[in-house]
Design a protein that fits this description.
The complex is a heterodimer of chains A (196) and B (343).
Chain A lengths: L11 H29 L3 E5 L9 H5 L7 E5 L35 E7 L2 E6 L9 H9 L4 E5 L11 H5 L5 E5 L9 H6 L4
Antiparallel strand pairs in A: 1-6, 2-5, 3-4
Chain B lengths: L1 H8 L2 H24 L3 H9 L18 H4 L8 E8 L5 E6 L5 E5 L2 E7 L2 E5 L7 E4 L5 E4 L4 E4 L5 E4 L9 E6 L3 E6 L4 E6 L4 E5 L20 E3 L5 E5 L4 E5 L5 E6 L16 E4 L5 E4 L6 E4 L5 E6 L13 E3 L5 E5 L4 E7 L1
Antiparallel strand pairs in B: 1-24, 2-3, 3-4, 4-5, 6-7, 7-8, 8-9, 10-11, 11-12, 12-13, 14-15, 15-16, 16-17, 18-19, 19-20, 20-21, 22-23, 23-24
Classes of the chains: A alpha+beta (196), B mainly beta (343).
């Protein structure tokens, strides 16, 4: 029986047939690989790292939403419950009370409540907060840094290209898994990110 | 002819080669798909556009802290005359003994500096939180929750009991018989004898004895004994100085809350203090990093060093004063002991 000749010229029909089948296999492989990859990758959302934040005020001005989806949040376990809160009072406050002229927050979003002498609790009215970070700067400079900014995911529309992230001078914005959407300070952060 | 072609297509070699080619193409497709940038990589690429210049936008809500850091030069009556390297990566505590020998605690232990040519080390298991030197040269080292005593050669003499898990020791003052230890974690000052036996505690809230109680929001609470053997405690959360008898009786107190030069601001200031030979207080603050002097009754006297003389964010400016009234400031940012003298 004659052995087939290896150097036998390939006919045009065979060549096109082979090429087509090879390309089909390549396409099918790509499709399966892409599908598998998409199925296993987790959804990501925007968040800002409070340790990188420089309180530039652009979270308030650059967000596509008005007011911004970035809000001040409070790590109560880090707070000193100070009578003279650097995040609440203007430096030239006439008295340490809740009069509007003494407050640093431009929208009055920080709420001060007496606990017991000399402790005061500070909470944030997120409906008023515009994410300007004025209180964050004051708290960080004079206190323990318990007030910090976070993207609130009940507000954020999760743009593909976050306009605040683009403008952020300290590159504090990053994508985080939707299952762990916050980079809080204090105990809450340890719960979410034990490695930190 | 037709039959020949069919037999050629069904040939085993051709079948294996062509099948292999298809499988190779399929695998190549899989690899290609996996190499495509995923959502995370795309997100990282857009979240770290470090190569793109950022446009500078004015902050309409700017909180100008710089104006608070400016001090009238006429108020600064001290000048820096020397900067002594701590020769350690992390410095945490500073003390002087009666002869003027300087002790700097840090990650390598305690650096003992008598003069430029005489330096030695006392090795410690960990960086001390606070230091004090007894008149006989014994070195009292405050770790997080206990005191360890070394003789002047650096040999361990004794170790006091742990003050508990929540303890965070911040300062030691040594009297003739007593040792007072500030514990920011438990918000008290422990009174012990030199063997470590607990004799009592000071500073706890007691309305009957008119003691307001220590408010310590962060781990800073300094203590020092004055010339009369009375203990001064800095109640940082109240921006107050409180004088106690060794039995815990509150003798007197003053407090001054203000971001202006005559007071103290923030959650917890002053973080450190030392007593000058004339009884006035040298104070160090965080937030607005500055060294000042206040009279015994709290009246502002002068500025030793302005915020501009420290790196922004510096904390832990431990203080010591020698018999000549020179002020030694531990600067953890510069890793030095800076010496200030009256102009």
């Amino acid at each position: 029986m004659d052995k087939p000749n290896k150097n036998q010229p390939v006919s045009r029909r065979t060549f096109f047939g082979d090429t087509l089948r090879t390309l089909s296999a390549l396409g099918l492989g790509s499709l399966v690989g892409f599908g598998a990859r998409k199925a296993t990758s987790e959804e990501l959302v925007w968040q800002l790292d409070p340790d990188k934040c420089v309180q530039c005020g652009q979270c308030a001005t650059e967000c596509v939403l008005d007011p911004s989806a970035v809000k001040c949040v409070h790590a109560f376990d880090v707070c000193g419950y100070c009578k003279l809160c650097g995040g609440y009072f203007k430096p030239d406050a006439k008295s340490l009370d809740t009069a509007a002229e003494n407050q640093l927050c431009p929208t009055g979003a920080l709420i001060r409540k007496f606990v017991e002498d000399p402790y005061y609790e500070y909470t944030i009215d997120e409906s008023l907060c515009i994410g300007c970070a004025k209180c964050v700067k004051g708290c960080g400079a004079f206190g323990n840094g318990s007030l910090h900014l976070q993207v609130r995911h009940d507000c954020c529309v999760n743009c593909n290209e976050c306009s605040i992230a683009k403008a952020c001078p300290s590159n504090a914005f990053q994508r985080v898994p939707a299952s762990k959407p916050y980079l809080y300070r204090g105990v809450q952060r340890k719960d979410f990110y034990p490695e930190k | 002819m037709e039959q020949n072609k069919t037999s050629q297509e069904l040939d085993r070699r051709n079948f294996i080669v062509r099948g292999g080619q298809r499988i190779a193409a399929f695998v190549l497709g899989l690899i290609g798909a996996s190499l495509l940038p995923g959502q995370k990589q795309r997100a990282l690429a857009t979240s770290t556009p470090q190569t793109q210049p950022k446009r500078k936008v004015e902050n309409p809500w700017e909180y100008d802290l710089e104006s608070l850091k400016k001090i009238d030069p006429a108020l600064i009556t001290y000048e820096e005359i020397e900067s002594i390297p701590a020769e350690q990566e992390k410095v945490t505590a500073l003390a002087l003994d009666d002869s003027g020998t300087l002790y700097i605690g840090g990650d390598k232990g305690v650096r003992v500096i008598t003069d430029k040519t005489s330096k030695r080390w006392v090795q410690l298991p960990q960086a001390p939180a606070c230091l004090a030197i007894d008149t006989n040269g014994d070195i009292f080292v405050g770790l997080k929750d206990m005191i360890v005593v070394y003789d002047k050669k650096g040999t361990k003499k004794t170790e006091f009991h742990s003050m508990g898990e929540s303890s965070y020791l911040t300062s030691i003052a040594i009297g003739i018989d007593d040792v007072f230890v500030a514990d920011a974690g438990n918000r008290v000052v422990w009174r012990m004898n030199k063997a470590g036996a607990l004799l009592g505690q000071l500073g706890e809230k007691d309305e009957r004895r008119h003691i307001p109680g220590l408010v310590i929001p962060s781990p800073y609470c300094d203590v020092a004994l004055d010339q009369n053997g009375l203990l001064w405690v800095v109640n940082t959360g109240r921006h107050a100085f409180e004088q106690y008898k060794p039995d815990g009786t509150l003798v007197k107190r003053w407090e001054k809350t203000s971001v202006k030069i005559d007071g103290f601001s923030g959650c917890c200031n002053p973080t450190h203090m030392a007593i000058l030979p004339d009884g006035a207080f040298v104070t160090a603050e965080k937030g607005l990093e500055r060294i000042k002097i206040h009279e015994t009754d709290g009246t502002f006297r002068t500025v030793v060093a302005a915020p501009s003389q420290f790196k922004e964010g510096t904390v832990g400016l431990d203080l010591a004063v020698n018999k000549q009234g020179r002020i030694f400031v531990l600067d953890p940012s510069q890793k030095t002991a800076r010496v200030f003298e009256k102009k």
